[in-house]
Amino acid sequence: MGAVMKEAIAGCHVARLWICLAYFASGFNTGAVDHEADGSTNNGIFQINSRKWCKTLDSSGPNMCQMHCFDLLDPDLKDSVICAMKITQDPRGLGSCGFNTGAVDHEADGSTNNGIFQINSRKWCKTLDSSGPNMCQMHCFDLLDPDLKDSVICAMKITQDPRGLGSWETWRHHCQGIDLSDWVDGCDL
């Protein structure tokens, strides 16, 4: 495969990630503002948080994107894209804008969903007190690392399981059985 083809495929993959992020973060609503319990706000199409990334009228955070949060609410996506690109260059990457690599969700059965992909401990990883099959051969806390290597390896194993993506509730509720061709338009290289 030539360098141009590899670059086109990589660019297409990145575009799909951005489109997916915008869809699930804000429903493509450039004017979306979500108020957090700590007083910060998530702003615009990518739901960029004011705690670190933009300045509100009353915030004193670091304003890493060097812009006002209301600039992120403009239908002209220039400022939103510039700020989102800065976020992806942050050491925490997408984890710094809502993709919480350290997320742990506790289920009623005592299992936990872990990390950015919410991988369940019932079958896929080992907690300190679990005796499940540990199909990914790793501890659940390995899935909480901002370095996504273990999370990606485990997620790839899950997709190879007979249930595949059906292992994720989000997939079953939002994607399974739905025509997803719009997500990959222009990517059939």
UniProtKB/TrEMBL annotation:
Gene Ontology CC annotation, any one: acrosomal vesicle
**Which Gene3D superfamilies does the protein's record reference?**
1.10.530.10
**What are the protein's UniProt keywords?**
Disulfide bond, Signal
Which stretches make up the Glycosyl hydrolases family 22 (GH22) domain?
65-83, 136-154
Q: Where does the signal peptide begin and end?
A: 1-27
Give the family this protein belongs to, as stated in its UniProt record.
Belongs to the glycosyl hydrolase 22 family.
Report the superkingdom from the record. Eukaryota
The uppermost taxa in this organism's lineage are: Eukaryota, Metazoa, Chordata, Craniata, Vertebrata
One Pfam family from the UniProt entry? Answer: Lys
Query: By what name is this protein known?
Result: Sperm acrosome membrane-associated protein 3
Which processes are annotated in GO (biological process)?
A: fusion of sperm to egg plasma membrane involved in single fertilization
